[in-house]
Structure formats: C-alpha cells, structure tokens
Amino acid sequence: MPPALRGGAGVSEALALMVYLAALVGSAAGIYGVLSSRTLLRLVVSIEVLFNSVILSAAYIGFVSGADPGFYSLLIATIALTIAEIAIVAAILVLVYRRKGSLDVDLLREVRG
Length: 113
What we know:
Shape: elongated
Distance between the termini: 59 Å
Structural class: mainly alpha
Low-confidence stretches: none
Number of strands: 0
Strand content: under 5%
CATH architecture: Orthogonal Bundle
Order of helices and strands: HHHHH
Number of domains: 1
Helix content: over 70%
C-alpha cells in the first residue's frame, strides 16, 4: 500500500495540506454564510458546511494518528445523526414556508406560538 494511504507516519505532507486547506475553506465558508445569510435555508446550509468541515478535520486527524475503529464508528454515528437533523430541519422549513410564504430570518420572531 502506498505511504499516502497507509495512515500513521507515512501520510504525505501534501495530502495533509490539502485536507487541512479543504477543512479551512469549508469552515470559512460556513462561518461567512452563518454571519451573512438572511434566509433560513442559507443559514441551515452554512451550518451544515461548517459542521462537515469539522467532521473532515476529525476524520483526518484520526487517520493520521492511527485511531482505533471505535473512533470511526463514532464519526459514522455523527454523520447519521446529521442526516436525521437535516431531515427534521427541512420539514420545519417547509412548514414555516407554508405558513409565512417566506424563509426570511426576521420571520422567526413572528412564528412563536
């Protein structure tokens, strides 16, 4: 197996740089989206991009450090919970859109009760 795919100390520095750069770009895009979005859908997508960049970083750190399979099963459980969370939030967004006709962030104050 090539050293770049073996994990542990054999991981190339170029691969590490690419993964960290992808996680950094994803985090920056997620934070920018959270701070600048005015609609609920963009806000949810930005939060998911930010969360997935954290999962990418954690998975790569586990790969480099040679983590045990329990670590990866925890990451898979986290991804599965994220999918369930996306489904629930999407259902809530559909209900808000049906009730108010828009997904503007300012509508959150009016949706109470």
